Amino acid sequence: MTLICIYFSGNLGNRWRYGHVTVSSNDPYQIAFEGVVGSSFQGDIAVDDI
User: Fold this and answer.
1) InterPro entries, alphabetically (predicted)?
2) Less Cβ around it within 10 Å: N or C end of the chain?
3) pLDDT tens digit sequence for 2-30
4) Number of helices (H), then strands (E), in the chain
């Protein structure tokens, strides 16, 4: 099963965007982060405080 919890796209400016997801399960699970980098300096990706 794949579930997209948070999705950002386009120019989001010069600020961090907060996202929060709570995961609760009695079974093993996997969490993945995926990003596509743009071709210029504006195509940056950052993930912090996981």
Assistant:
1) ConA-like_dom_sf (IPR013320), MAM_dom (IPR000998), MAM_domain-containing (IPR051560)
2) N
3) 788 888 887 778 888 888 888 889 999 89
4) 0, 0
